[in-house]
Amino acid sequence: MTSHEGTTPTSRPTVLVVGSGFAGFHCMRRLEKHLPPDAAELLLASSADYLLYSPLLPNVAAGVVEPRHIAVGLHAALRRAKVLLGHVVAVDLQGRSATLLRADGSTSELAWDRLVLAPGGVSRTFDTPGVAEHGLGLKTLAEATYLRDHVLRELLNADAADDPDGRRACCTFVVVGAGYSGTETAAQMQLVTSRAAADYPRLRPEELRWVLVDLAPRVLPELGRRLGDDATEVLRRRGVEVRLGTSVEEATADGVRLSDGDTIPTHTLVWCAGVTPSPLIETLGLPTERGRLRVGADLAVPGAPGVFAFGDAAAVPDLTRPGQLTGQTAQHAQRQGKLAARNVAASLGFGKAVPYRHRDLGFAVDLGGFDAVASPFGVALGGLPGLVATRGYHLLALPAAGNRIRVSVDWLLDWAMRPQLVQLGFLREDQATMAAAEHTAIYRHPPADEWEAAAMDVPTTRAVVTDQGLPRPRAHQPR
Asked: Cβ contacts of residue 182 below 8 Å, gap of 6+?
């Protein structure tokens, strides 16, 4: 049964931050510094009680890094903000309220004086037939751990198969998207399966086939031709087939049909073809650009007083490249979050607002083993120097010392020990589709009695309502 609870009345203005990704997390963390304790009530609405350090999701899928080690706990990192577990599924701009949908189907109406929208993005599928049903995403911890389980299950099935065609399909893995996530996933997972093959007596490494597909003319176009070519060379040296200038036209349970006419028999399609803004943005009725909420250089939303937006869901103008938008990267999201906190504080009378202007720090791509490509401050690095720069950057960007230590130990153990080839089984197959894992259906304005059913598939920490109308964490029960 759905219940409706409001926030506790307060004489102080309320700042509601939606999302605990890079943008929302760093905004809230900086708000705690910019605003005096009695200046505002700080609320953070999040579907999880942690910041996910998403650049290391390929490491999690490969089994190199443990899932919890890239999750930075919100309650340990934030000192004053109240964390509300759930999804903000609707916003009333005129009434200055937002609807929070919890995992148990109950809802709360949250009043706000300043609304900070940083809901992030979800996997972009281009409405390609079969992708939503058969593609595996890599946006959440659940998706990363499921992908590892799925790949290990396919190796097990291949080892036991007597039918040559069925065996071949089990040994074939297709990754779509030659950007950061797709390239890292293909490179690292190829290493995992090659190392794992030794533990399956009837499986030979040469039977394993990894295919990287992208419509772009080269791998990692954001890194420039030299580093893109270096990454391509690493992939091909390991046996990964790189199919450029090619797209997926249809996906089924047994194969993938490509635009060049080839059909690849496979049970594994990993979809890393980009990000589209959270479906929440479509419900606002505000102007968008390329699907992203239009904002000014100060990250304020024109025509919506008191509303700010940034990160993957916002079309932030790039002042260093007039007429263009900033990229949907963790680097931008983190820096925009910090600047947004300053401007939100300024709107409450603390400090002065400034426009967002950035300096590119470069990019880093971990290809697994001792291979990586990176361009810190424009300096092209590959091989071991690239790996040192890449992993050093990740350690600096992780916002908690405990996570840095745990991730460092994971990397050392991966070099020193054989991988553990076990399936964790945290998700059922029907929970692993991109729509289910990323909860895109809950934003379609279902009637109140349907929200509860939709929320039942949200694998977040459940919550109960306290006497203040705010959720209190209950022990997580994995399904």
From this structure: 175, 176, 212, 214, 270, 272, 273
pLDDT band at 432 (very low <50, low <70, confident <90, very high): confident
Helix (H, G, I), strand (E, B) or coil at 14: strand
* Distance (Å, whole) CA 30 – CA 82: 15
DSSP letters spanning 232-272: HHHHHHTT-EEEES--EEEEETTEEEETTS-EEE-SEEEE-
pLDDT digits (tens, 9 = 90+) for 305-317: 999 999 999 999 9
Backbone dihedral region for residue 475 (phi beyond 0: left; psi -120 to 50: alpha; all else: beta): beta
Q: What is the pTM of this model?
A: 0.87
Give, rounded to a whole angstrom, the gap between the first and last alpha carbons of the chain: 21
Burial of 369 (0-12, 13-18, 19+ CB in 10 A): middle
The 10s digit of each residue's pLDDT in 50-77 is 999 999 999 999 999 999 999 999 999 9
DSSP-H helix ranges across 280-374: 330-347
